[in-house]
Specification:
Blueprint (H helix, E strand, L loop, with lengths): L16 H35 L4 H35 L1 H35 L5 H30 L5 H5 L2 H5 L4 H26 L6 H31 L3 H10 L2 H23 L6 H26 L3 E3 L3 E2 L17 H7 L1 H4 L5 H4 L6 H13 L14 H4 L6 H13 L13 H16 L21
Antiparallel strand pairs: 1-2
Helix pairs in contact: 1-2, 1-4, 1-7, 1-11, 2-3, 3-4, 4-7, 7-8, 7-11, 8-10, 10-11, 15-18, 17-18
Bound molecules: heme C.
Length: 470
């Protein structure tokens, strides 16, 4: 029997498996952008302290470093691997595709990361104990190492959206995948905004220390952070516009027509709020307040980073990596350089339930008795990466998308014309045998007739004949 290299499926009802990753990823982005931005800001401030002989700046640096150590590095180091662990469970073939391309890139990233974590400890514990010049050198090494992790990871993230050109499919060259069309705008956009993030929390920390440091140093610190923050926000917006101009056509359509305004609007509002706060503290450094800066920092997570990560993940659709593998883990096109062949023809001929080795025997052969359960299995395998296929709430729920469609034939005609012969730019083409599409239609019509919500469990009969119709 023909089987393809699929893995067991992890189905998370309602919120969907993708959102599980998005939550972990957002926590990581918050922590990592704060620490990478801070690494450069602190190295800059340390240089200033040294050149202008302002030793009190070091007190501030020490406090900021402690904050980074306790908060950013702990949450960042846990959530970073957390992204890859959860993504491996959610989309093993997607991760496998990335590893097959980027294993050495990842290895390099890991080395920079280890250097970065080691250095943050060294910097904290040696501040004031070794001579200033040596400490400065360490601080700049830390800054470069931190940014290098971003430099590397952005290459992988951009490739997930698109290789950006046809060349890579033919050459398979790691650099063609890494330095894709969208790489530099993406890197520069993140680099800019990270100064705004690190600057905002930096001002919160400074305002807590107001009484501990002299007025001039205090003003100097807040002004410096504000200028970097203003620059970061303004350049961030410019690079964002460049980033949008490099999006593949499908992502452009998704951005304009599919992404809801309630995800886009908060990002613009928070950027303006952050900018306004920096302008205010640049003009009047003594007006900086913890109760203003810190809530803005927290708001950056909810109104900025979380929606941004969600949007970025949606723009990538229907692919999970490199425009050759869909979110449902089916390889959708040939990649000659890697010896990868499209799986669509074989799935259309043999059936997804047949070629996936983890589909239980009792569902492989579709009969009138097991049709609905087999259809549910098809829905979980092909659609659940982006839809709640068993309910009416949560992630793009089928209960709403197919509302009112209780006739299996109507669902079938819709699916064939909308997703098989053609398909919207954000969804994969519907694959499988005609019988599987009929089973999927029967299942959808059935779940709608049950009020748009059924159990997430798939009842597996020992053999197809024993199946119970539920
Ligand atoms: C790669 C992600 C992805 C997969 C996989 C996917 N969809 Fe979708 N689907 C979307 C997006 C994005 C929308 C746009 C609407 C939204 O965001 O709510 C959508 C919308 C829909 C709609 C509403 C019509 C429309 O175009 O807005 C239907 C019906 C639908 N999907 C059915 C399915 C079925 C059936 C499957 C499985 C065979 C499936 N989808 C698989 C992402 C996906």
């Amino acid at each position: 029997m023909d089987v393809l290299g699929f893995y067991p499926m992890w189905y998370v009802p309602t919120i969907g498996s993708g959102l599980t990753i998005a939550l972990i990823a957002s926590i990581h982005v918050m922590a990592s952008h704060t620490s990478v931005g801070a690494s450069i800001l602190l190295a800059y401030l340390a240089t200033k302290a040294y050149k202008e002989n302002q030793p009190q700046i070091y007190n501030y640096i020490k406090k900021y470093l402690l904050g980074l150590l306790v908060f950013s590095y702990v949450s960042g180091s846990i959530s970073g691997p957390g992204i890859w662990f959860s993504a491996t469970v959610v989309n093993p073939r997607g991760i496998s595709a990335l590893i097959h391309n980027f294993v050495w890139v990842w290895a390099a990233e890991w080395i920079w990361f280890v250097a970065e974590v080691t250095l943050v400890y060294i910097l904290f514990y040696t501040l004031g104990r070794i001579d200033q010049r040596s400490w400065l050198r360490l601080a700049w090494t830390f800054a470069i190492g931190s940014w290098a992790t971003m430099y590397i990871i952005v290459g992988i993230l951009s490739f997930m959206l698109s290789p950006g050109h046809e060349k890579w499919f033919e050459t398979g060259n790691i650099l063609d995948a890494f330095y894709n069309k969208n790489y530099f705008p993406h890197l520069l956009e993140r680099t800019s905004f990270m100064f705004a993030i690190a600057g905002t929390v930096g001002i919160a920390i400074a305002s807590l220390m107001r009484k501990e440091i002299n007025e001039k140093t205090y003003k100097d610190i807040v002004k410096t952070l504000s200028y970097w923050g203003i620059g970061g926000t303004v350049f961030g917006l410019m690079f964002f516009a460049w980033y949008v101009s490099t999006l593949p056509q499908r992502s452009d359509i998704i951005l304009n027509n599919v992404i809801p305004i309630y995800l886009k609007l908060p990002i613009m509002v928070i950027i303006l709020l952050v900018l306004a706060n920096f302008l205010w503290t640049a003009i009047r450094p003594t007006a900086a307040r913890f109760w203003m800066a810190y809530p803005i920092y927290i708001l950056i997570f909810f109104a900025g980073i979380y929606p941004e990560e969600k949007i970025r993940e949606t723009l990538r659709k229907p692919y999970v990596a490199g425009e050759f593998i869909w979110v449902n883990q089916i390889v959708s096109r040939d990649v000659p350089a890697k010896g990868i062949k499209s799986e669509v023809p074989i799935i259309n001929e043999k059936g997804l339930l047949t070629v996936n080795p983890f589909v239980p025997e009792g569902l492989k052969k579709i009969t009138p008795e097991n049709e609905i359960m087999a259809g549910k299995a098809v829905a979980v395998l092909q659609c659940s990466g982006c839809h709640n296929v068993t309910g009416s709430t949560g992630l793009r729920p089928f209960g709403q998308k197919f509302a009112g469609m209780t006739d299996p034939n109507a669902v079938y005609n819709f699916l064939v014309s909308y997703m098989r012969e053609n398909h919207p730019p954000y969804m994969p083409k519907l694959t499988g045998t005609d019988q599987e599409i009929k089973a999927l239609s029967a299942y959808i019509a059935y779940m709608i007739s049950k009020g748009g919500s059924v159990s997430a469990k798939i009842e597996v009969p020992k053999s197809s004949a024993e199946a119970i119709r539920r």
